[in-house]
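Write out the 3D structure for:
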Amino acid sequence: MAFDLDPRAPLPTSLLGAARIECKQAEATLAEPTPAHIHATRKSIKRLRAWLRLLRPQLAGQYRLIDRLLRDAARQLAGRRDADVALQTLLSVRRARLIDAAAYRQLRDLASRQRRDTQRDGAADERATTLLRAAAIYVEGLTLPDVGESTLRAALAKTRHRCRRRWKRASADPTAEALHDWRKWVKHLATQAQLVGSRIGEPGVDPAALKSLADTLGRHHDHAQLLQGLEAAGLAGQPLLHLRLRDAVTRRQQALERRALRQGKRLLD
């Protein structure tokens, strides 16, 4: 089910209903923690955190409580998801012919061992489920004041301002950290614009273009995670193989960085 607003319901009711449905969907999906379901659950959590930011002034103290529960749930699932993405990213590096077949096989074996280790941590799935259930209970008990369309427009404009500020920061100094921070706000803005667009008319941003930008930034981050993860798994002890992967990752990241900054300029300048 899409994360959107019921056009027939009053706006506060519709906003709360969307979040409650998303909470239930996230918990139900995680009941069978396959890689696809873990990915879907993490996406649900990101949508819910964007929803929280949209309504932060109206939620007062409840905002921090629910956001921390969702953040911690996502962290419990991060290891398994990162291990799956590492294998996919490594394959893309090989297909781009940035490493040879022999290096790819060595790196794939290392990444596969790392993935097997993360698959054994069933307790992390249980902790994530408990945290999601707690967040859902708090969301179920929320009430909203009479939120109007002008409130949503102002909140969306604030998110866009913060996203634009991080684009400028990343443009001036495109470190991996700056680009990743910018990506978070791009995803918040895309989710919020898609959610409220049907109720406030033209949101002033293009959710589809923002999602494309987030995807570019996400792949940049995936390459950084690939290198860091394999270094932690023992790659640093193989200097030549380490150098080959680091050079390949750097080349891919440079291309993705240029693309993301061009996309950002079109959307946010």
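The chain has a mean pLDDT of 92.
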